[in-house]
Each structure stands twice: as C-alpha cells, then as structure tokens.
Amino acid sequence: MAAWDITWKDLRLLAGDKRALVLLLLLPLMFIAILGMSTGQFLTGGGDERKLKIAVVDNSDSEYSRDLIKTLSTHADVVIQPYETQTTARTALEKNQAAVLLTIAANYETLVDDLRMPDILDTTRSPKLSTPEMLGLTFESRSVMSGEGIAKALVYGDALRTVSPVVARTNALTRRFVRDPNNPPDDAVEEDAAAPEAEVPAVPQEPVAVAANKTESADKIYLILVPGFTVMFVFFMINIMARSFIAERDQGTLRRLQLAPVSSAAILIGKTLPFYLTSVLQTSLLFLCGRLLFGMSWGPEPIYLIPVILCTSLAATSLGLLLATSVHTDQQVSAYGTSLVLVLGGISGCLFPRVWLPAMMRKISLATPHAWSLEAFDAVLTRTSVDQMFVLDSCAMLMAFAAAFFLAGWWRFRTVH
Amino acid sequence: MSLLEARHLRKSYDAHVAVADVSFELHRGEVLGLLGPNGAGKSTTMLMLAGLLKPDGGQVLIDGDVLRPGNAAFKYQLGVTPQDLAIYPELTALENLQFFGKLYGIRGNELHLRCQQVLKQIGLTDRANDPSRTFSGGMKRRLNFGVSIMHRPAILILDEPTVGVDPQSRAHLMDCVKELVESGIGVIYASHYMEEVQAMCERVAIIDQGKMLAYDTVPNLLSKLPSGLSLMISSSEKLNGQLSGLATTTVENGQTTVMLTGDAPDVNQRLPIVLDRLKNAGVTLERIESRQPNLEHLFLQLTGRKLRD
Q1: What is the pTM of this model?
Q2: Interacting residues of A152 by C-beta distance below 8 A, sequence separation 6+
Q3: Residue B305 domain-assigned?
Q4: How near does any CA of chain A get to the CA of B155, in Å?
Q5: Cα separation, A180 vs B221, whole angstroms
Q6: CATH number of A50-199: 3.90.1210.10, 3.20.20.80, 3.40.50.300, 3.40.190.10?
Q7: A261 and which of A42, B72, B131, B282 could share a cystine (Cβ 3.0–4.6 Å)?
Q8: pLDDT in tens, B284-302
Q9: Which of B99, B104, B157 to mutate to test the interface with A (most CBs of A within 10 A)?
Q10: Is ipTM over 0.85?
C-alpha cells in the first residue's frame, strides 16, 4: 500500500513536469516524423521519394535495350527516368533528380547478338558478359551513398534475364526450350521444357528480392523507425527517473520515506512503478501514433506487442533504478545517463536497422536489453506469422535484464542510502 | 522507565570520530536539549536515535526495548523534523500531510481530520491548497514540522527546527512544541541557539567534538557558573597586578574587562576596593555590566570556545 502511495505521489509530480512529458512523448514522435519525412514516407510526396531513381540514356534504341528498360521498370522500388541525351541526364544527376545514370551503348544490340550460350551459362568466366560494362552498360553517380552498387546489380540481373532467351534461341540445343512470344508453345514443348528443369540454366535471382517470410509492408520505414526510436526513448526514461531520485534525496524527502514504516523494497517499487506505467503509456502512444499518423502495420498478431511493450518498459525502468542509485548529482545523470542511452541505442540498432549490423556486432548487441526488444518487435511486426516462442524467449531475456538491474539497484540503495 | 535512552553511543567515519560516547535519557512530557556547535555530533546522534544510522557502539532504547534499524514498530513512535526542509515543493501543504500520513497508515476520515488538525496547529489552514514552493521560509519550516507530527509520535526529534525562521514562525513553532510536550510527548531539541534551548528545555546535554561535556538540568548547569559584575576599562597596563586576589582581567577583541565573580555580598564588599585601585592607577572605567550565567558562558567555560565559533 505504501508503495502505491509513493507511486501515486510520483505520478502526480510527473504529470506536472512538462519538460519530462515533452521529452518522453513529443520528442520521439518528432524524431519519427522527421525521419519519416527524410525518407519520403511522411508528408513529402508519397512513395516515389524513397525509390531508387535511375536516369537512362538509351543510345541503342533497339528491341533489346527497350526490353531491358521495360524489365527494369517493373521493380516497385525503382523509378526509371528516360533521357534523350547524356547532357540532360547528367544535369538531372547534378540536381539530385536521379541517383544513378545508366547509359546503354549504341552497340548494345550487336553485343547481345554476339553472345553465345557458354557466356550465359558461365558469366563469371565469360569474356563478353562478366560485367555489365562488357554489354555496353555504364553507370555514373554523384556520391558513394547513391545506390550505384544496387543499381548495377539490378541492371546486370535484368540484362541477363532479357538477353538469356535471345541467346538461347540462337543455340540449336536450347532453342526448343525458349518460348516464342509470337507463337505460343504446344503442349509437348511445354512438357519437355518442364521435365528437364534441372538442366535448364539457372537464371540469376533478383538481387534485391525481399525475404520470403516478410510481409508486404515490411519494407515500410516505420516498421524500423517506430520500434527503434520507441525503444531508445523508453530508455531515455532512465534519466528522468534518476533525476526524480536525486530530487527526492536533495529535498530530504528520501530520508523521510526511510523514517516512515516503509521497507526499502516498497520505496524502490514505489519509485519505479510510476515510471514503468509512464513508459508503458509512452510506448503504447508511440505505436498508436505510428499506426494513425504513419499507417504503420502492427503485424499479423498485434496481441504479441503487449508482452514486448511490458517487458521492454520493465527492463528500462529497472535500468533507471540502477542508474538512480548509482549517481549523486544531476551532472552525473546527464553524463552517464545520456551516454548510456545513446551508446546502448547505437550498439543495439535503435538508430538504424539491425540488419545493417555486421554479424559479430549483432551478437555483441544481444548484451543490451534494447537488442532483445528490437528483435521481439521485429518478430511481431514484420513477419507473416509471429514466432511465439521467439517472442516469449525475448521477453524472458528482457525480464532477466530487469531482475538483474532491479537487484543491483536495490543492493546499491541498501548499501549507499 | 525512560521513553528513550541513549547508552554510550559511538560512531566513526573512517578515522573521524563523529560521536565518541554519548548517553542521556528522555522522559515523557520532557524537552531534552542537545546543545553544541555545528559539527559537534548532534545530527549523527539524531540519526542514530532515529534508527537511520547504525551506531558503532552503544544502544538506543525506546520504552526499554533496543532499537533495531528496520524495525517498523519503532518508526511509529518517532517523529523527526530534519534540519533541512523535507517536503515536496510541488505538492500542496495538504497533499504533503496526506502523503506522509498515509505512509503511517492513516487513511480515510481519520486522515482528513488529522490533516485539518495539524494544519490548524501549524497555522497553515488558509494556505492548505497552495503548493509549498510558494510558501515563505517560515511557512515551509512549519509544514516541515507538521509532517513530523502527522502520525502522533510519542518521541519528537527536532534538529535545528528554527534555522532561518522569522521571529513570528519561530514563536509559533515554540508554542507548538510546548503544546505537544504538555500532551505528554518527549522532545529532543537539538540546536546551537542556546537561548532557545535554555528557554525550552528542562535538561540539556552539551556535546562538542562528539563528546558529552555536560548533562544536567538547566538550573543545575547554570549554578556551576559564577555570577557577578564586568567592568569595562580602557587598559590594564597601569594596574601592575593591583587587582590580584580581587578580580580577574581579560582582554578580548581589544576590550579589557575586569570581572568580579561570586555571590552578591562578596562582590559588594570587593567592588569599592577595585574601583578605588582603578582610580589610583589612572584607569578609565567605561561601563559596568551585570553578569548573568547562561549556557553560552557554560560552553565557553567547558571548551574555551564560543558556541557559534
């Protein structure tokens, strides 16, 4: 009962602390909105803003080059911008209207016609096809972050896809396996073509294909931004918590609490609970805003968000308790607390997608509660079906972190205070 | 049986001995003064009495039972007004009282009635719903005191309760304490304001550098000091020991004082002789003061230092 009295008192004080409310609720929303705008997802002109824009100058103007451009245009995340001349295309590149410039050489058709089946079957050792440049496909970009590498891989893959049937038709052995767009194949050819499937040369897979078990909305930036920034800002709570603790001590009211017939555990629970409830509210609000403002998906089974939110908040507030009992001044809170939040957020992948982290770093990051939380959110939000065991395991890890932090904080409180 | 007893309390912080050997008793309806300069060991003693600090040696007994830190039963008997304010500035006076009252298990109508009672007692009924951060220093002190008595403690420990308080609030606090003592509460009153202690307390323990220098009733302590007259003179250079056996001469802050101590008939007998010798030596008498012994003088005699040094 005493713990609840302390909780209620702190909630009352927290509600009057406008700076804390701004930090906990408005700031993460602002971050998410700004990053959403930066990535073209929010208020900045729809989906095309974050697509890979490839300016194309087709000097060949052949059936083959048009086929390549048509195939490139089928990718959802690519915008093809045709230009008449190299000069106008380069101007577009300079003005950031396009990220990469693809120039199709005038002799593209001839180069394709010169290809033979061995070139297609073993591209790495082919003297005519081992790089896109050999086919007369050249690339230009203005910066290293332009996505030229992705564009190159995409164009090379599509070039192989479009030239393979052309080359196959020229070969007596493979001709019968190739469909003629003007003459649909008869049943026999269909069957023959299906039977020796293993012998058909493998067409390179699309290099930017999305993992099979991801949902259609998995590529939406908010599925990364909202959990990432939510987790980071949930852990920002530790600063406010530590400050509340220091204020309690500096005001002398901590001593009054200790003078009252209240156990140290009840004091700590009472001091932790309001921040836990605020944290749960904060996380829920951010996910709600993610849904309402940014159209973010809650995954196939949103119910699993509940344990992840509860356990993340538990770990965060327990870490806050440990920090609160370890520091002595506001300056220490600013120095240690903020560093802790940013370092742990950076290591764990709150600031950028975890898939970008190297494998070793991803393993190291599992030493932080943030990483387990992000993994769990990812499992709930971006999969076609939720791996319940994985989510529960992650929650168990978060609870283990919470228990360890709370016990360490309790020990500090009993020995220091 | 005494309400509270401190037996040979000792506490050290590394090499520094904060409390060397402090013992005293507190009875119901009594105000016991703890007198000593800043850093004498009063606050450390208070913390041990309140169960917030474990003594290195000695014991605190409440109603004959040894106080053990963490034993909640003792906490209901103790009320502590700390030296520094210990209230929530963002909460109103009423909310502060309600919150701390609840921690002691007071709830519902009883809590409401008790809050009104305490607010009246500390003179803050009109400001009950104002945040305490808007209060004057004296009002905050009164609220600080009110919080300590919310749960009707049997023992009240007041640590410098009037530091930085305006005369009006100080008088109000004194009246509150007297009222509580009349109702049977035992009060330990720590202060370095000897006038307050002398006015409030039946018995006084004088502490300096962690040691107890004296412990007795105020009249008994003062009886050990001589009364008499102080003669302020221009200089003692021309006297050449002529007052030997009649009076003592001291020089402090450039002022030479001839002190005649003893009971009234004795002083009356010596005064004309001393005045005559001063006149003969050509020494100018600037003024004469009557010397009434007080705790300040006692402390000076015991330690050779003033209380506020």
Answers
A1: 0.70
A2: A132, A139
A3: no
A4: 13
A5: 122
A6: 3.40.190.10
A7: B72
A8: 888 888 877 788 778 877 7
A9: B99
A10: no
